[in-house]
């Protein structure tokens, strides 16, 4: 696993052993960021200078990819101890300690809001309907800014409906499905 583009292009990222953490595949991350970069509902400005939240962060690959591509800062929420250690290592490897902040916790019961984020990544365990639960909790806690893009990866068979969010795109990549929503103002 590596950073695909930007200032950290090619940087290898660590991953925890075992199957408890399922990092987003390089090809899926590349397709996602290519879509964000070129979509009429997003564009480069959706990533560049964005305040990013990577919830269910795992290795931090999505948030670190955003930082590599010009995001202003990134917040990472993760609850698994092993994944937290790997996340800290990956932030250090990318020399992003000043622009990245880790919060140990559960995205369905998020820690106190630090910043309203304009780009939110959710990559929870598949099949547990965690996207609507976490979006509701993060929104109620103020983590999701008006007009923010919310990008959620789920299993291919999962449908996601988010009241108060416009469904702007859905793409399938193997066993994964990437949902893109915009929070209504």
The helix content, as a percent range, equals: 10-25%
Write the H/E string, N to C. HEHEHEEHEEE
CATH hierarchy class name: Alpha Beta
Count of runs of 4 or more consecutive helical residues: 4
The CATH topology assignment is: Rossmann fold
Question: What fraction strand?
Answer: 25-35%
CATH architecture classification: 3-Layer(aba) Sandwich
Instruction: Please outline the major beta sheet.
Output: 7 strands, mixed
Counting DSSP E segments of at least 2 residues, the number of strands comes to 7
Fourth-level CATH superfamily: Vaccinia Virus protein VP39
Integer average pLDDT: 93
Radius of gyration over alpha carbons? 15 Å
Structural class: alpha/beta
Strand order of the largest sheet: 3-2-1-4-5-7-6
Distance between the termini: 36 Å
Task: Give the overall form.
Answer: globular
The parts where pLDDT drops under 50 for at least 5 residues are none
What number of structural domains do the residues give? 1
Pfam families: Cons_hypoth95
Protein name: 16S rRNA (Guanine(966)-N(2))-methyltransferase RsmD
GO molecular function, one term: methyltransferase activity
InterPro entries: RNA_MeTrfase_RsmD, SAM-dependent_MTases_sf
Summary of the model, kept short:
By secondary structure, the protein is α/β, with parallel strands linked by helices. Helices cover 24% and strands 28% of the residues. The protein has a single domain, classed as Vaccinia Virus protein VP39 (Rossmann fold), CATH 3.40.50.150.
